[in-house]
Specification:
Layout: E1 17-25, H1 29-35, E2 42-49, H2 53-64, E3 67-73, E4 78-83, H3 85-101, E5 111-112
Parallel strand pairs: 1-5
Antiparallel strand pairs: 1-2, 2-4, 3-4
Helix pairs in contact: 2-3
Length: 113
């Protein structure tokens, strides 16, 4: 009897989502050194898919509050913001609102440590 093998094809289809929205208030100065960024009061970290959305998020964040871009990677969807704690939180909140309302993304709650 001939055995038929079943083939399974898997494909990665990223969702439209902001998976991490975190603020590190008053980070240890060693973090700035390790990240190679200018020391400020707070660090904001976002992770997005599709990964190119990090570019849009950076634009929204810098227009919404006085924050700097510490790191942006369109290949991993990582965005690091720096600035005063309130400004970083305001920038991340603006990104969340824009992605949810305009691009119909799933968003993440803003967490803080």
């Amino acid at each position: 009897m001939e055995e038929h093998k079943q083939r399974v094809i898997q494909e990665y289809v990223p969702g439209k989502q902001l998976t991490l929205a975190h603020v590190i208030a008053n980070p240890d100065p060693v973090l700035y050194t390790k990240l190679g960024i200018e020391q400020r009061s707070a660090i904001g970290i976002l992770t997005l898919t599709p990964t190119e959305t990090a570019i849009i998020a950076a634009d929204i964040a810098t227009k919404a509050a006085d924050v700097g871009i510490g790191y942006l990677d369109r290949f991993t969807g990582s965005l690091v913001l720096t600035g005063e704690v309130a400004a970083v939180e305001m920038a991340i909140a603006a990104v969340n609102v824009f992605l949810l309302e305009k691009l119909k993304f799933s968003t993440a709650p803003i967490t803080r440590s």
